């Protein structure tokens, strides 16, 4: 199938209500139900056909009653307020998996979603420090997440770790961190010291672009 030519290079932070490591990454069941969380990403460079997407941000709030692959999920999209209508439509097309192979990331997630509240256009604050295993993102009165290193329970020092997936569709490698986050409204949630993944990933119509998707990190 022929797809629209597009590519986005992203800095991203994903969180969920699971313990550190997230069983989904190992084809195991969630550590608690429902499975829920918040995420945000910044497109450092990107395009959809002739539409430039550089610098735009998106965020999401989500919940699945069971493991993600069992479906019946809810996904609430938040699009950068500064995006034009044309840019916003391009983002909805990309993240809705409409111009991507069915067996790749955005298409896979889209297939698990049953309910989508009306998208929100808002200012998305976003900070990302891959080497420091830190970050934060916020949409005023809607959601917020604070990311910090996982701490060794004995020494109190940062416990540095990463997940590397040979065939991951969300990321191929991500730094693990600790997330404290909340959201309001229909998907209200509040979690402390849960799973967080910080990653640098490039996507296109056929999924992850591997050579451009390795975290820039140091020990």
TrEMBL record:
InterPro entries: DUF1326, UCP033303. It holds the Pfam family DUF1326. This is DUF1326 domain-containing protein. It comes from the Bacteria.
């Amino acid at each position: 199938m022929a797809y629209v030519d597009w590519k986005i290079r992203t800095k991203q932070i994903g969180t969920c209500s699971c313990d550190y490591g997230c069983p989904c990454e190992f084809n195991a069941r969630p550590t608690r139900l429902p499975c829920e969380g918040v995420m945000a990403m910044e497109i450092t460079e990107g395009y959809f056909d002739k539409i430039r997407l550089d610098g735009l941000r998106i965020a999401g709030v989500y919940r699945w009653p069971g493991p993600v692959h069992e479906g019946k999920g809810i996904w609430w999209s938040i699009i950068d307020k500064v995006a034009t209508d044309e840019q916003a439509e391009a983002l909805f097309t990309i993240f809705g998996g409409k111009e991507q192979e069915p067996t790749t990331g955005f298409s896979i997630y889209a297939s698990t979603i049953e309910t989508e509240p009306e998208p929100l256009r808002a200012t998305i604050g976003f900070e990302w420090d891959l080497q420091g295993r830190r970050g934060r993102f916020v949409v005023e009165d809607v959601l917020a997440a604070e990311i910090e290193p996982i701490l060794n329970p004995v020494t109190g020092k940062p416990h540095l770790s990463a997940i590397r997936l040979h065939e991951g569709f969300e990321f191929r490698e991500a730094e693990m961190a600790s997330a404290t986050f909340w959201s309001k409204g229909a998907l209200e949630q509040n979690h402390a010291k849960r799973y967080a993944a910080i990653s640098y990933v490039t996507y296109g119509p056929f999924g992850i672009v591997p050579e451009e998707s390795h975290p820039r990190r140091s020990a």
